[in-house]
Automatic annotation (TrEMBL):
Chain ranges passing through the membrane: 607-628, 640-664, 670-693, 713-740, 746-771, 1038-1058, 1064-1084, 1091-1111, 1131-1155, 1167-1190
Annotated keywords: Cholesterol metabolism, Disulfide bond, Glycoprotein, Lipid metabolism, Membrane, Signal, Steroid metabolism, Sterol metabolism, Transmembrane, Transmembrane helix, Transport
This protein's name: SSD domain-containing protein
Residues in coiled coil: none
Entry membrane topology: Multi-pass membrane protein
A Gene Ontology cellular-component term: endomembrane system
Gene source species: Oncorhynchus mykiss
InterPro entries per the UniProt record, alphabetical: HMGCR/SNAP/NPC1-like_SSD, NPC1_MLD, NPC1_N, SSD
Family: Belongs to the patched family.
Gene expressing this chain: npc1l1
Region: Disordered, residue numbers: 1224-1243
Length: 1243
């Protein structure tokens, strides 16, 4: 029976030496749902009691600051009160004792309130209640005012505000400040929470009054605000405990130098240095001129280079001429042989292996990130699988809520009860029949259950969402209750609980009369950034987030298939729900399998787009290759079958390449299937156009057979085709030296495909052209060979439309003197390997960050890095199993105890058990507790298996249970958090800095005695294996592209007879195309990654087609001036390149703009469009101008050969004329005409 009395200010006087209350009266009947028994004291105005014996020893243990020596110590608390106070302080000490001065200040205050011999001078009882216990009515205190000086309060708060909870990376103060969290906590708010009986921990209400120095107004007579000495966090405690560590106390931190400023940009005279260099180069280019007038060449003027060039061209020309004549003479045999060879290679496709795992695609098996991932997965299991939904409700109106406790709050449309209930329904839907388990499977079969990993139920699964603040309970979400606060009564509901929990997610009980926990049903906190997104304040969030965490398994484990099935079911349900008419949400969602699925899906969905693209290219080639001399001969002059044959040659070369590598066990990938045919088509189409157009523009010589003509034409153009194909093939073979698996396999497949394409063009396509020429010469229609037309072919070669247009208009305009000048113008782990002795005191001090630890320990260095988040990308310091293990062992908490009686005597006893009278370790005098080796190895398994709870929040199960535990630790990990990373640049920078930090830690830890020199600390998070490529991708890209550029120079020089200038200009133009491509990538938002690198390597290959043909044509020209030679090369070869490369690629590329996949749109449509346009601009605009300025001179050996041939022709002509004249003279002598003139013969 209880009777509430009105607020009392009793007759008690406030004077030293008197108590306001004494002894325990029983439970507080006004406090319901308390996490601890709310035992309250009895009102008892009396003198303070002298303490002795056990009573004195208990006070000395719990409140040493009140000890005045046995016989001289008085206090206002009984032994029962001291034991209850000790139990209460244990809960706080569990999180505060890593900073002894903070724990001491915290205990100091509550010891003063409960036990001070001058109790009445610092507190004022305000509410009492009659409690009947065992038939005895007692007056109990249920509320009082506690007066503190602001100096004591502020200093106590300052000593505690930075104390960390290593397991969460957050601050301990966040659990002690209610709705304000750590960010908004102040001394007053901290004390208000401690004195609020609704928090589930305080047994009665305490109104803390913080009074500034010298203020007396409003203070009862006789009351003096307590102004005892509070310890700074960098001070030792009176009992000798060490100062707090740097991680918990900024005042204890050593001076750490600031990072150096970034390097200054390169400038010349205050102007961008690169711009200045470009202007200088432009001026040199403009001033340069190099025209050579026509003149006779003397034999001594011919250089060795000219002779080598002529010899090379004659050798290649004659060889290809003979080969072309041979193939054209036996086309059917050649086609059959080509088909057999291709089929033999292609049969390897039966064994083809496609790589779809992103890790295998982008990370080499021997790369650092891959090896670190394998090490981590071996010792700690693979990183759990993340499946996530982000839900928004655009346009849904919000509302205002006038909260009794929190005032007026604005709630966005998405933070609405009906939507939260809908989300709760959605997250409970996923279950399915599993053939692998032969039963219905659900989340519990595959979920990540950190606190019950061996036999989880659905409520043990780590599901993070807003409904978890209500333990996924509809009843909790619907709960309402009337609550009175400061005389105002209002209804409180789910919104009050939500506001409290997002600000204090670690609370086991809110401060409303709902008395609900904020912890998730699986026993861990749900931090607000895991529940809502897009917010300035949590109530105005724009999105709800639902995250399922699944265990990851090796791919050969049956549970891996079940996890994939669950994720597929998750995706199916989300997609079905998304399409349902009553769906109130807009979705964004992903599963762990989504990336791999997306790679497969985009290929399947975009295959029709690629097919249409190839069809467009085929139609263009078939139409563009035709001659079309008259309407009646359209079917005769068309090249439909030749175009089809060219496409088949490309396809066969790709199939042969893929089959060959499948034979020898080199896996392919979907990127290869998409990119390599495009590349080979660009190369192959160019060669086809050059060959066919040259054949059409050529006239058959008198007495020349068709086969001989084909051989002669092939002899003219095949060296140019060889130059490009060989350059590209060698380029790609060298590109296979890349360490990136995707780039390496692409380079190998592309190299062989280009080589096979050239071989098939020299065989099968020449044979096809021979058959087509035979048909065309017979005036037979292409698709109906038996039908012939009467209209004969014109006698003059057909130049088509493009060549005359380029010759008459484009080349003269481009190479006009004025034009020439214009043209130039997500958490991260720090993993330790074996070889470090954690059981030694030096080993523990080198890793921990609490009291007594090395100020430059592993975890402390990570803490320093978090102070510069913009540079280090570290946001939250590392959690530390070493710190929490030490705190768990501390006898100041209830965590590590031993059974004192019974069958388990001497074994570990959890905090919730009874009969555990023995502590695992004794309290150290200096507050620095360190277990010895035997204790370390004995108790570590108990720590790792201990489930954290209110009585012992330091248990290691869930947070640290994956630490490998053997006599010598094989591997451990310390989890920190990066800042929010969104771009590739940020992910890469974060990896780089984390590695630098880990290396620094490694070096310092190796200096600890007994540490192996191969011991290492490395950072790991699930994204590193993908973003490691970015650390080296610039150097890797330069290396690969340089390797590709090298053969373009070498092959060009060799096939042009050591023509270094042509090779250099050829190389310069290709470099410019590549550099400009990278520049446009930046402007168009195309990330530079491994896919882009593949396309850049491709760009080098396509650039060769645009550039090398033009360079060779210019080098072989015998026009008298550079400008005339450039015009000729642009008109003759430029038209073929434009028709064969640019116009072949562009239609197919444009079709790719309609692809659904971003990968295709960005890296195939955008990038290939950029490459083609830039290649065309440089090859057909810049290169002719560059050659007109700096191109090599006319090959004097060729000119000399022509002059000698012309002289011989003149001499033969003269000799013939002499013979004619002599005959005429003889006839004259016999003639009757004496007046006929006499002619002198020429000598």
């Amino acid at each position: 029976m209880c009777v509430c009395l009105p607020q009392v200010v009793l007759e008690a006087r406030h004077e030293p030496g008197y108590c306001a209350f004494y002894e325990e009266c029983g439970r507080n009947p006004t406090v319901a749902g308390s996490l601890l028994p709310p035992i309250i004291p009895c009102l008892n105005y009396s003198r303070a009691r002298a303490l002795e014996g056990e009573h004195y020893q208990q006070l000395k243990k719990v409140c040493p600051m009140l000890d005045r020596g046995e016989g001289s110590t008085t206090a206002c608390c009984s032994i029962k009160q001291l034991k209850s106070l000790e139990m209460s302080l244990m809960l706080s000490k569990a999180v505060l004792m890593r900073c002894p001065s903070c724990a001491d200040n915290f205990a100091h205050l509550h010891c003063i309130n409960t036990c001070s011999p001058d109790q009445t001078t610092t507190i004022n009882v305000t509410r009492t209640m009659n409690i009947t216990t065992l038939g005895i009515v007692k007056e109990a205190v249920v509320g009082y005012q506690a007066y503190l000086s602001t100096s004591f309060a502020d200093k106590s708060f300052e000593s505690c505000k930075n104390v960390r909870i290593p397991a969460t990376g957050g601050y301990a103060i966040a659990t002690m400040c209610g709705r304000y969290g750590s960010a908004l906590c102040t001394a007053q708010r901290w004390y208000d929470f401690q004195g609020d009986s609704s928090n589930g921990l305080a047994p009665l209400d305490i109104d803390f009054r913080l009074i500034p120095e010298g203020v007396t107004e409003g203070i009862p007579d006789g009351v003096v605000p307590y102004a005892g000495r509070a310890l700074g966090c960098n001070e030792m405690t009176p009992t000798g405990a060490e100062v707090c560590s740097c991680q918990d106390c900024q005042a204890s931190c050593p001076v750490v130098p600031s990072p150096p400023p970034p390097a200054e940009p390169f400038t010349i005279g205050g102007v961008d240095g690169y711009l200045v260099l470009c202007v200088i180069f432009l001026c040199v280019l403009i001033l340069n001129g190099n025209n050579v007038s026509e003149r006779l060449i003397e034999p001594w003027e011919v250089t060795c280079t000219d002779k080598n060039s002529l010899a090379t061209q004659e050798f290649l020309g004659s060889g290809f001429r003979a080969w072309g004549t041979l193939v054209a003479s036996h086309p059917l045999k050649v086609l059959l042989a080509s088909a057999v060879v291709t089929a033999a290679f292609a049969t390897g496709l039966m064994h083809i292996e496609l790589t779809t795992d992103p890790v295998q695609l982008w990370s080499a098996p021997n790369s650092r990130a891959r090896m670190e991932k394998d090490f981590h997965d071996k010792h700690f299991d693979p990183f759990f699988r993340t499946n996530q939904m982000i839900l928004t409700a655009p346009g849904r109106p919000g509302h205002f809520y006038d909260s009794l406790l929190f005032g007026k709050q604005n709630f966005s449309g998405i933070i609405a009860k009906d939507l939260i209930l809908e989300l709760l329904k959605l997250q409970k839907k996923i279950q399915f029949w599993s053939n692998d388990l032969n039963r219905m499977a659900s989340l519990k079969d595959v979920c990540f259950a950190p606190l019950n990993p061996s036999n989880p139920s659905l409520t043990d699964c780590a599901v993070n969402s807003l409904p978890q603040y209500f333990q996924n309970s509809v009843d909790n979400l619907n709960a309402k209750v009337n609550m009175t606060e400061l005389g105002v009564t209002k209804e409180v509901d789910w919104r009050d609980h939500f506001i409290y929990c997002v600000n204090s997610p670690l609370s086991f009980k809110d401060i409303t009369d709902l008395q609900l926990s904020c912890m998730a049903d699986y026993g861990a906190p749900v931090f607000p950034f895991l529940a809502v997104g897009g917010y300035e304040s949590y109530t105005t969030a724009e999105a709800l987030i639902l995250t399922f965490s699944l265990n990851n398994y090796p791919r050969d484990n049956v549970k891996f298939k079940v996890a994939l099935e669950w994720e597929q079911r998750f995706l199916d349900i989300v997609q079905e729900y998304q399409k349902s008419p009553g769906n109130p949400f807009t979705f964004a969602y992903m599963a762990e399998r989504s990336l791999e699925d997306e790679i497969n899906r985009t290929t399947a969905e975009d295959i029709p787009i690629f097919m249409i693209s190839y069809a467009v290219i085929f139609v263009y080639i078939a139409v563009a290759l035709g001659e079309y001399t008259s309407f009646s001969r359209i079917l005769v002059d068309s090249k439909f079958l030749v175009g089809l044959g060219g496409i088949l040659v490309v396809g066969c070369s790709v199939l042969a390449s893929m089959g060959f590598y499948a034979w020898i066990g080199i896996p392919s990938s979907l990127i290869i299937l998409q990119v390599v045919p495009f590349l080979v088509l660009a190369v192959g189409a160019d060669n086809i156009f050059i060959f066919v157009l040259e054949y059409q523009r050529d006239a058959r010589r008198p007495g020349e057979k068709r086969e001989e003509r084909i051989g002669r034409v092939l002899g003219n153009v095949a060296p140019s085709m060889l130059l490009c194909s060989l350059s590209e093939s060698v380029c790609f073979f060298l590109g296979a030296l890349s360490t990136m698996p995707a780039v390496k396999s692409f380079a190998l497949y592309a190299a062989l495909a280009v080589l096979m394409d050239f071989v098939l063009q020299m065989t099968a396509f020449v044979a096809l052209l021979s058959l087509d020429a035979r048909r065309q010469d017979g005036n037979r229609c292409e698709l109906a060979c038996c039908v012939s037309v009467k209209t004969t072919a014109p006698s003059k070669p057909n130049e088509g439309f493009l060549l005359p247009a380029m010759r008459k208009y484009y080349a003269p305009v481009l190479l006009h003197p004025v034009t020439r000048v214009i043209v130039v113008g997500v958490p991260t782990y720090f993993v330790t390997t074996k070889g470090f002795n954690f059981t030694s005191i030096a080993g523990m001090n080198a890793t921990c960050s609490s009291v007594g630890c090395d100020p430059f320990s592993l975890t402390q260095k990570i803490q320093y890095a978090t102070e510069y988040p913009d540079l280090s990308y570290m946001a939250i310091p590392a959690n530390s199993w070493v710190d929490d293990f030490i705190d768990w062992l501390n006898p100041g908490s209830k965590c590590c105890r031993l059974y004192s009686i019974g069958p388990n005597k001497g074994k570990f006893c959890p905090a919730t058990a009874f009969l555990c009278g023995q502590k695992c370790m004794k309290t150290p005098l200096n507050g620095v507790l360190r277990p010895d080796k035997e204790q370390f190895n004995r108790f570590l398994p108990d720590f790792l298996g201990n489930r954290p709870d209110l009585q012992c929040p330091k248990g290691g199960l869930g947070a640290y249970d994956k630490v490998t535990c053997v006599s010598v630790l094989l591997a451990t990990r310390f989890m920190a958090y990066h800042t929010a990373l969104t771009t590739s640049k940020e992910f890469t920078a974060a990896l780089k800095i984390a590695r630098e930090l880990a290396h620094n830690i490694t070096l310092s830890m190796r200096s600890i005695p007994g540490t192996s020199q191969d011991f290492e600390v490395f950072p790991y998070t699930v994204t590193y294996v993908f973003y490691e490529q970015y650390l080296t991708i610039v150097s890797e890209g330069l290396f690969n592209i340089s390797l590709c550029l090298l053969p373009t120079f070498v092959v060009c020089c060799l096939l042009l007879g050591m023509d270094l200038r042509s090779g250099a200009l050829n190389l310069l133009t290709i470099i410019m195309i590549t550099v400009d491509t990278v520049g446009v990538m930046t402007l168009w938002g195309i990330d530079y990654n491994a896919v882009a690198l593949i396309n850049l390597v491709t760009a080098v290959g396509i650039s060769v087609e645009f550039v090398s043909h033009m360079t060779r044509s210019f080098a072989m020209s015998i026009q008298p001036t550079h400008v005339e030679r450039a015009k000729e090369a642009t008109a003759t070869m430029g038209s073929a390149v434009f028709a064969g490369v640019a116009m072949t690629n562009l239609p197919g590329i444009v079709v790719l703009a309609f692809a659904k996949a971003q990968l295709i749109q960005i890296f195939f449509f955008r990038l290939n469009l950029v490459i083609t346009l830039l290649g065309m601009a440089h090859g057909l605009i810049f290169l002719p101008v560059l050659l007109s300025y700096f191109g090599p001179g006319v090959n004097k050996a060729v000119l000399l050969r022509l002059q000698q041939a012309k002289a011989q022709e003149l001499e033969l002509s003269s000799n013939a004329k002499n013979i004619y004249d002599n005959i005429g003279y003889e006839n004259q002598e016999n003639s009757p005409n004496p007046h006929h003139p006499v002619r002198t013969p020429h000598h």
